[in-house]
Amino acid sequence: MAESIARGVVKSGLLPASQIRTAHLGYARRTAFESFGVKVLDHNSQVVEDSDVVILSVKPQVVKGVVLQLRSLLSEKQLLVSVVAGVQLKDLQEWAGHSRFIRVMPNTPAAVGNAASVISLGAAATEDDGQLISKLFGAIGKVWTANEKLFDAITGLSHILYRDEKMGLIGLF
User: How far apart are CA 145 and CA 67, in angstroms?
Assistant: First the structure.
């Protein structure tokens, strides 16, 4: 998902690749990001120290450990964004130690620029924060704002509609 987001943002012209940072140890992931100009660092801490907006795009089973590891580096000045499936804002905010957080759930078609993303703002996230993230995720598809309690239903429906569209059961005219 991180690569899809970065590619979309770069392709749309919202940010040059030189302003995007990520951390990966694996050669294949590093090469993929470097192929379109994203600076790849060795450690998540390096990304956090160099970023105004931090997008967490990790597996749900490791997100708590990642956020707790980075907690001492996170600042209220940074906007934190999670695209981690199934992890609620209240937990993310508790682990991070602050609530300027936005949760985003893009669906699989993000890889081809046709995502349907839903966002929910944390307690300290501003309307401007929401507009910024809507603009960034708009680079990979459509964006809606919703109450987080509706995320499971919304993302489930978007995956069903996409799957049906791929199977030819729903036509777009």
Answer: 24
DSSP string for 2-66 = HHHHHHHHHHHTSS-GGG-EEE--SHHHHHHHHTTT-EEES-HHHHHHT-SEEEE---HHHHHHH
Instruction: Tell me the pLDDT tens digit for each residue of 80-96.
Output: 999 998 899 999 999 99
Task: Give yes or no for a contact between 76 and 23, defined as CB atoms under 8 angstroms apart.
Answer: no
Instruction: Tell me which amino acid residue 20 is.
Output: I
CA distance 159 to 162: 5
Residue pLDDT, tens place only, 114-134? 667 889 999 999 999 999 999
Q: What is the pTM assigned to this prediction?
A: 0.82
Cβ–Cβ < 8 Å for 98, 76: yes
Domain around 42: 2-166
CA–CA–CA angle 163, 166, 168 (5° rounding):
110
148: β partners: none
**Residue 173 covered by a domain:** no
CATH code: domain of residue 6: 3.40.50.720
